[in-house]
Amino acid sequence: MAELLIKNGFVVDPSQKMNGDVADIAIRDGTIVEKVGSDAKVIDAKGKVVMPGGVDIHAHVAGPKVNAGRLMRPEDKLFKSPNAQEHYRVEMGFSIPSTFKTGYDYARMGYAFVMEAAMPPLHSPHVHEEIHDTPIIDEAALPVFANNWFVMEYLKKEEIENTAAYVAWLLSATKGYGIKLVNPGGTAAWAWGLNCLSIDDPVPFYDITPAEIIAGLIKTNEYLGLPHSIHIHQNSLGVPGNYKVTLDSLKIAEGVKANNKFDREQVMHSTHIQFHSYGGDSWANFESKAKEVMDYVNTHRNITVDLGCVTLDETTTMTADGPFEHHLNSLNHLKWANTDVELETAAGVVPYVYDKDIKVCGIQWAIGLELGLYAKDPSRTFITTDHPNAGPFTRYPRVIKWLMSQKAREATLDSLKYCSKVIDATDLHGIDTERTLYEIAQMTRTGPAKALGLSHVYGGLGPGLDANVAVYDLDLNNMPTDPEEIEKAFSRALWFVKSGQVVVKDGEITHHGNKRTVWVHAKVRENHQVTRDIQDKFLKNYTLGIGNYPVWDHLAPNPYVIEVDGEA
Q1: SS3 of 209, please?
Q2: Cα distance between residue 222 and residue 160, in whole Å
Q3: What would the pLDDT profile of 435-477 be if each residue is shown by its tens digit?
Q4: How far apart are CA 169 and CA 76, in angstroms?
Q5: Of these four, 101, 231, 259, 323, which has the most CB atoms within 10 Å of its CB?
Q6: CB 559: neighbour CB atoms within 10 A?
């Protein structure tokens, strides 16, 4: 039996209420155990911080739009990796890194799991091919549902049972994890060159509104008892004044209780909420409404959010929100790719530069941090950049630095060309909150793991959990006064153990690890109507046969399958 003992570290693990306790972490055969034998390999973590492996609840790391971004932006490869190592696969790309660099960089930061946040079902084999190609880190993918023909037709007639049967079939066919909504109804409207900018705008042809889609998919999710709540990218993303649409969307979840099979309270996860917390009615009077949004989130425990922090980098935006990408292209006039995915969704890709010399970019940067600092419950507020939309995931250590250090925030604020205008439009300058390591662990480990229904696997260091353990060069008895040392520590873990295997030592990759693909198999009673509907649409509308649609097993090797009995 492979045994490992990580000794004498300052353990920061909110799942066990450990806040810097000096303790040992014992590992046997990829699992955390109570104790190991005297001949176990020892890692001396004395004077260092020990945390569970990170869990990224929302990123775009695999699939057709990511690959389209790589193809249309060869200049992104000019950002050479400072971490490239001999004897390992080539690393390239900055905002859209290669699959190998993606796995390596997450591991260097001490992350164990990432959720691919928008999988077009028709292209799920491509998504899983790239997941398979990405080393070390475990992955899952969320199929998109909010503009799907089946879903809109069933929900228009309030057929929750039929919607649930279709969702269960699609999750199994695509080896998906949960229900993702992107611009509900608006992406379907884009086929007519239109959009749904409020939750009450009717979707052309379908005679259903975004509000009805959101409410119906919440009911569907809880009917099935899926491990994760619905995962929603609201309407009107990136538009001044959109905080009202955001609040209207969040209010749909009021009073709804979770089907508590997976020990979660939440029925809605609102993603990259920075892009949805804007005030003003034009870019001229654009301002933050982070406080108004977080005041609501703070008082409603059945909602979780992730931040979508702007990192002030050159990056590549990509989303299933096709009309938004067209709007963004009209603003910056750079490259634009757009596609429609038959019966299911759409997508767009546009490069973007979050420039310190542009007022709006500075305000966006401040809003993301305000949201993280206003959160009363860090275990329901998670650190993301909506990779790569607001910046690359490799900037998570920088976001952590900003959240932990007012000095670091003020230094960046002072570097903005329109510093005074950013101060006038936001509250960031007056916020003296500094997040602790315990709160950072809640925002990057225990919180997202629980929200995903995966706290029995990830996000903690208790016996029985997967042995995903990160050791960082931080001494709780002598924390650095220079905030740059915080970013440096979280960028390159001293050690990272993934599923019991040492994969990082002194910030260098040492092993490709024991990677897994995580997906949900939802069981429902046989539904002949939905079976007929699926067969009929594949005959009449799809360009491929139903037999060629599902993901083959060999594309998702070493799976971790969560069984859900929707009949129970």
Answers
A1: coil
A2: 10
A3: 999 999 999 999 999 999 999 999 999 999 999 999 999 999 9
A4: 38
A5: 231
A6: 13
Report CA-CA distances (Å) from 14 to 50, 356, 441. Answer: 12, 36, 7
Is-contact 95 75, C-beta < 8 A?
no
Cα–Cα distance, 254 to 243 (Å, whole number): 17
CATH of 52-451 given 3.40.50, 3.40.630, 3.20.20, 3.40.600: 3.20.20
- What is the rounded CA–CA span in Å between residue 323 and residue 343? 17
DSSP reduced 3-state for 18: strand
- Cα 260 to Cα 218, 222, 253, distances in angstroms: 14, 9, 15
Give the phi and the psi of residue 543 in degrees, each rounded to 5: -95, 5
Domain residue ranges of the chain, discontinuous segments joined by +: 52-451
Query: Integer distance in angstroms from the first to the last C-alpha of the chain?
Result: 38
Report the 3 state secondary structure along 292-354.
Answer: HHHHHHHCCCCEEEECCCCCCCEEEEEECCHHHHHHHHHHHCCCCEEEEECCCEEEEEEEEEC
Q: pTM for the full model?
A: 0.97
* Ramachandran class of 157: left when φ > 0, alpha when ψ lies in -120 to 50, beta otherwise: alpha
- Which is it for strands 49-52 and 469-472: parallel, antiparallel or unpaired? antiparallel
